[in-house]
Amino acid sequence: MKVLLTTLNSKFSHINIALYYLQRSIDNICDCSIKNYTINDSLDKIMSNILSYKSDVICFGCYIWNIEYTLKLAESIKKINPSVIIALGGPEVSYNPDEVLEKYPFISSIMCGEGENAIKDLITDVKNNCIKPIYEKSVNICDIPRIADDIISNYDNRVVYFETSRGCPYRCSYCLSCIDKNIKYFNIDYVLEDLKKLLSKNVIQIRFIDRTFNSDRKRALKIWKFLLDNKNSTTFHFEICASLIDDETLEFLKTVPKDTFQFEIGIQSTNKDTLNAIHRIYNFEKERKIIERLIECTNIKLHTDLIIGLPYETFEIFKTSFNNLYSLHPHEIQVGFLKFLKGTDIYYKKEIHGYKYNSYPPFEVLENNYISYSEVSYLKNFEAVFEMIYNSTHFKNTVKVIEKMYKNDYFKMYSDITDFFISYNLLDRKISTDECFETLNNMFNNNSLVNQALTYDYFLNFNGTRSWQYSKYSHILKEEINIFIEKNRNTIFNEKRNLEIHKNYKFLILDFDFNTNSNSKTIYYTLKNRQK
Questions:
Q1: Which of 125, 216, 407, 433 is in the most buried spot, having the most CB atoms within 10 Å?
Q2: Distance CA 74, CA 101 (A)
């Protein structure tokens, strides 16, 4: 019997490792193949390719980003091959299987929850011609196969996803991970063996999908030390709880080389009533101190999250949450919007808080008893501007200058920028980075320091000059640059010839030194196409 395991990923760089777990679970009882597609692929081409496998059973992984495409594909495939058995699994069908089966009669069966044992039963029943509509079977730690060899054999320079545990010790009401009440830790010796195999392949990045990687501090520290001892150029991404970082862990993290670890820390809100309502026990004041220390004494990139639309979080309270988190200046702040995922606690209690949300993926909040639709809509624009200005990292020096003008009222700063963008209808379409630079310059058109900061940021990130840039030294005196080169020939420029230096470097003269924050005529230099 031929079985095809497939899914539509959100991006080409993503690989669904769940398919490998399922394949390993049934590879001794059938002929099983895996095929990854993306939601950006042509559905006609996907369908043609799937049908070319001539499978008896096709199993789709269903997620918030692909459920609509998957159902369209499944219906068309069933029309062409009525005898094929189409089974679905994944979070988008695990919590309302009866509803899905009734609404979409072309679906033969649904596997709920973890699938390693459910798919075994499904395939066995298909062979015995006694298929059931719903399969759900618990998975013990010993039932989970090792898949490192499968990842390696299919590795093609994309990001590698890897897990060392399943489940989460926390009970956040908006998250599906809280449904698994018991956290399962994989055998640590097997984890280290499999990681060593991956590291020997020199993969680009390993993203650990454990929901709270450091829920067991000693275990996390052991894995982190192992990764440093065995890494080459691989980088690592972890979702962690900041409040679980103790002094021993922090001392170790100080030794992590720059651009090696990335931490994702979900703050979501700093409002106590909101945190209590969503069952988060985090203490922001404690987390604040730890995040400050991580930023101050480590080279670890910190990605943090806020969620708009949580219970009791009004527009004004969100401002406070934003300012509280922004004051720490983490490397990234993702401003997200609450999504109503089937199976979560907040999904079943949505009437309590008067939630209205989109009935189509990604099921985002429209309004609730605390925040209006117009406020949510405005914050969508705010989020788009914030992504362009802060998270892009193209405006690092400009942001520092403007922050001082706003005396650290960060929300008002980005709100005013958002309003300016809206007034010129710039958020009705995708705008270029160049337009973003020019628009900021127009907004602060009488401020020489902002103009110089924008000019410097553009100089660091991009080649070329633009008409809006600081023009006092637009005609750089070659002799000034040559004097600068001569002074630094033995250090910065490694005794290169002038011709080679001018060919490989670009120079800029401004009236402000952004390194010392002082009014001083300064010559800046950078390698062309690369920040120096």
A1: 216
A2: 13
pLDDT digits (tens, 9 = 90+) for 328-358: 999 999 999 999 998 899 999 999 999 999 9
The first and second tokens of residue 300, run together, are 């670890």
The residue written with tokens 């539509």 in the block is: 8
Amino acid at 469: Q
CB burial class (10 A; 0-12, 13-18, 19+) of residue 129?
exposed
Q: Which two tokens stand for residue 393?
A: 């990292």
Rounded-to-integer distance, Cα 238 and Cα 231, Å: 16
CB 55 within 8 A of CB 40: no
Residues in the chain: 532
**Whether the Cβ atoms of residue 365 and residue 355 lie closer than 8 Å to each other:** yes
Contacts of residue 304, Cβ cutoff 8 Å, sequence gap at least 6: 264, 265, 266, 267, 291, 325, 328, 330, 332, 333, 334
Which two tokens mark 97?
A: 């299987």
Give the pair of three-digit tokens for residue 71. 């159902």
47 DSSP β-pair partners: none
Residue pair 353/369 in contact (Cβ under 8 Å)? The answer is: yes
Q: With H, G, I as helix, E, B as strand and everything else as coil, classify residue 283.
A: coil
Query: Distance (Å, rounded) from C-alpha 89 to C-alpha 176?
Result: 15
pLDDT in tens, 471-485: 887 666 677 888 888
Helix (H) or strand (E) holding 148: helix 148-153
Strand order in the sheet with 235-240: 160-162, 205-208, 235-240, 261-268, 301-308, 332-337
Kindly report the pTM of this predicted structure.
0.91
User: How far apart (Å, rounded) are the C-alpha atoms in residues 380 and 390?
Assistant: 15
What letter does residue 177 receive in the DSSP assignment? G
Look at strands 160-162 and 205-208 and give their pairing: parallel
> Quick one: DSSP state of residue 164?
S
